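In response to reviewer comment 3 from the previous cycle, which asked for concrete evidence that the modeling workflow produces usable outputs, we include below a single protein chain processed end to end. The sequence was submitted unchanged, and the resulting structure tokens are shown without manual editing.
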Amino acid sequence: MFQNTLAFAQAQDAKDPLKSYRTKFHIPKDAEGNEWLYFCGNSLGLQPKVTQEYIQQELNDWANLGVEGHFDAKNPWMPYHEFLTEKMATIVGAKPIEVVIMNTLTTNLHLLMVSFYQPTKTKYKIVIESDAFPSDRYAVESQLKFHGFDPKEGLLEWKPREGEELLRMEDLETMLEAEGDEIALLMIGGVNYYTGQYLDIKKIAELGHAKGAMVGIDLAHGAGNIQPNLHNSNVDFAAWCTYKYLNAGPGSLAGLFVHEKHAHNKELNRFAGWWGHDKETRFNMRFDFNPIPGAESWQLSNPPILSMAAIKASLDMFDEVGMNALREKSETLTAYFEYLINEIDTDRIKIITPSSPEERGCQLSIQVKNADKSLHQKLIDKHIITDWREP
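The workflow returned the following structure tokens.
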């Protein structure tokens, strides 16, 4: 299928239906004007060239309209977050009522756990992957402490077996069979940041719910990368950032998903703010909190428009391309890269990411024996931008 030749790669480029989109991004260059080889979209996506235009539009409207921009801007600021909802929902496989853009990732996870982590004296434990991103671990540990539990007892780790790097679903089943009556929440990364393993979140939801636990997913490394089909997966909640595969800029706003089955439950505990209040009476200022049905009710404050403009620029491009076409190209490119790495005649290099396209996105995690961070630095010096992870 593949060939280890420049001619083959160039032929694939020539017939790629998405080839024109490469020119729509700013790609960093060296002093001689040569483009870097950028393999770090899992950390920060490149900037779409249209982003500056989208942000400039809002700066112009702010300059020319002042506060009236909330209603009279080309893209009125009052409902600005709503311009993002449908396209973002399509990317993650959700209904618009289930999605909102707000805050940042770990903030959203905390707000969601206020609602969906409701421990009792006997059912209070939280399950995460052993190699969960550190911020997820810090968040769930602090939630346990906030509710008066010792993380050493309340935090359960879903671990790979000895000598393996990847998680097995049957080991999660075993854990739930043994301790399910004490588990209140599964908070799992949909695509593991370290190995690139894409987990079956629908199966995870099924297993967790069978034991009466809530199920949340961190899609930091999944949104814009894989197709999680959040609504059909039946997970209770999810959150993700937009600065990685969604190309919305450093530290940009995050996404939040709450399944439709919770959309009209006004009794859910939540930390409330005025932007989550019923839109018709929000400015009356004297009413008791009346949550908007769906994910929007988790909003606290009016959103930062300049960050949302960058997200809008990216989402418009995603909408043009479509996740099906993007995923098809991603699978082909990732498989070709995997093939080229495996063509290297050495036993020092090992790919720990699953080989099946159904179990990974576009990330390949590579272990190199008897190497240290100097290898990463040598790549950087050659303008090959990669992501180093300890150990």
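DSSP finds 13 helices and eleven strands in the chain. We consider this sufficient to address the reviewer's concern, and the full set will be provided in the supplementary archive.
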